[in-house]
Amino acid sequence: MSKALKKPVLFQALLEGVYDDVYILDAEDLTLLATSESVYKTTGMDLTALQDRSIEDLLHISRSFLLHHLQIGAAESKKGRKTQPEVIYVDQSQFKILHVQSSDDTYAVIVRNDATSKDAIALALQESELRYQSMISNAPGMFCQFRLDKRSRLQFDYVSAGSEELLGLSPGALKTDPQKLYEMIESKDRTVLRNQLKQSRKEVRPLNWSGRVWIDAWKDTKWVNLRSTPKTLASGDIQWDGFLTNISKTMQEKFDLEASRQRLSDLTAHMNHIREDERHRIACEIHDDLGGNMTAIKLGLSAIRQSVEEKKGLPEAKINHVETIVDGTYEAIHRICSDLRPNIIELGIVEALSWQSNEFEKQANIPCKFLSNAQEIDAPRSHAMALFRICQEAMNNIAKYAEATQVFVNLEVSDSHLKMLILDNGIGIKPVDKIKENSFGLRGMQERASALNGQFKISRLRGDKKGTKVSVTLPRVEVQ
Question: Are 421 and 470 in contact (CB under 8 A)?
Fold first, then answer.
């Protein structure tokens, strides 16, 4: 029976968990008895296939060379000396050759290490470290590794050189006294950071915090952003790897944009106010001047009619025709004045929207139902006019494009807001309709709501329902 069959458990125990290339041979005839798992992976062969290969093919050393070194080890064993592995180098490989005596059997244990692979790995690690250091040193900000101790105090394990440019503090100063960072952060932002750190540690999730720091040396306030990813260390502690960057420019651009939007909103509100005042002035002039003139003409025609009837002069048909024109003109004046300055708004927004719903039903011949959760709503004229005009524009769109057979208008009031909802069961608005260049009606509705710090939304109904939904929400304000 061969040694391989006699000692399988021994060989398996010897090679368990070994990552080097290990060969166990019969020291007498150099028969391969076992190898480590790494040999199988490297060669792609099993033990039987490896046993068919010669020693020269497997180890790239000659049989005589190997037997010579095994004999040296055997001689040392006979002298009773403790056998040490003999280390030899062949080409770029290192061999450790050990002669092992076990009862009546002798074995050769050979461990091979590829020096070239080790050098390549060391070189790759060195290059990776250089690239890492280059990235850290050139990154726009401060790279850091930090954790919270048992008392939830901040501790820095690593701080890059970028801390001096960003915070005016050296890496050593921050590592020695981490609380200096907290001291630089404004009070409210510091509280937010502490809470977010505790939450990130508890849930082991990424941290993204922004806040203001005061750089005393420069007498300047900066906006900074900290993005970091936590990991659990072998000790069980949580450590974050992150970047602290200067976002002052970005925040200033954000503030400028918000201020610009607010100025635009204020300008829109002012323009709407001017437009409504102009409409009021024109409506008054039309009503007072043209309306008065038309009334005088009609009175004159009545007097002429009476005179003609007495003297049998002009045909009555011509007089009737002129009178009809005057009546039509008078109605036109009334309609134009109502469009320019709806007097119904003086009765309140609830009454105005109810009247508008009824007028729409009469003119468009489409059933329109109006509901409100209050009989009277005390709203500023600007808010009431905005809701009235938006409803007016929405109903014009329904009449022109929706192909609807039912319209629903709802007005709700709460302690904090006014909300108007307009629904129809038509074909529904398409997404492309919202971004058309000539969609001035939609933009006008949006601007009216935005000018009053409100929200305007228009969308297509989903699911089985068809149609369009217009939603307008305005904040409640006290009537001056």
Answer: yes
Residues β-bridged to residue 229: 241
Instruction: Return d(Cα 304, Cα 100) in angstroms, integer.
Output: 143
Locate tokens 């002039």: which residue? 285
- Number of Cβ within 10 Å of residue 289's Cβ equals 11
Q: Which CATH class is domain 139-246?
A: alpha beta
Equal CATH topology for 3-118 and 347-475: no
pLDDT for residue 237 is more than 70: yes
Q: Dihedral sign, CA of 287, 290, 296, 298?
A: negative
Question: Is the Cβ–Cβ distance between 160 and 143 less than 8 Å?
Answer: yes
The angle formed by the CA atoms of residues 252, 254 and 259, to the nearest 5 degrees, is 95
Interior angle at CA 475, CA 469 and CA 480, nearest 5: 135
- The widest CA-to-CA distance across the chain, in whole angstroms, is 164
Provide the phi-psi class of 365: left if phi over 0, else alpha when psi is between -120 and 50, else beta.
left
Question: 2: closest CA among 33, 48, 24, 36?
Answer: 33
Q: Where does the pLDDT of residue 25 fall: very low under 50, low under 70, confident under 90, or very high at 90 and above?
A: confident
Residue whose token pair is 């039309």: 286
Question: For position 85, what pLDDT does the model report?
Answer: 59
For the domain covering 3-118, report its CATH number.
3.30.450.20
Phi, psi of 194 (to 5 degrees): -60, -45
Domain ranges of the chain: 3-118, 139-246, 253-339, 347-475
Type of residue found at 398: I
Between CA 477 and CA 480 the distance in angstroms is: 9
- 368-372 and 407-413 as β-strands: parallel, antiparallel, unpaired? parallel
Judge contact between 363 and 402, C-beta under 8 A. no
Taking alpha carbons only, the member of 456, 461, 389, 455 closest to residue 423 is 461
Residue 271 has pLDDT above 80, yes or no: no
**Are the CB atoms for 363 and 376 separated by under 8 Å?**
no
Overall size of the chain counted in residues: 480
The DSSP code sequence of 436-463 is -TT-HHHHHHHHHHHHTT-EEEEEEPPT
- Sheet bearing 368-372, strands edge to edge: 368-372, 407-413, 417-424, 468-475, 455-460
Q: Which of 383, 363, 470, 373 is nearest to 426 (CA)?
A: 470
Return the higher-pLDDT residue of 2 and 76: 76
Residue 107 φ then ψ, to 5° = -130, 155
**Token code pair at residue 385:** 């006019």
Structural tokens at position 3:
């040694």
- Residue 478's alpha-carbon distances to 343, 388, 415, in angstroms, are 22, 19, 11
For the domain bounded by 347-475, which CATH number is listed? 3.30.565.10
130-187 pLDDT per residue, tens: 676 666 666 678 989 999 888 888 899 999 888 888 999 999 999 999 999 999 999 9
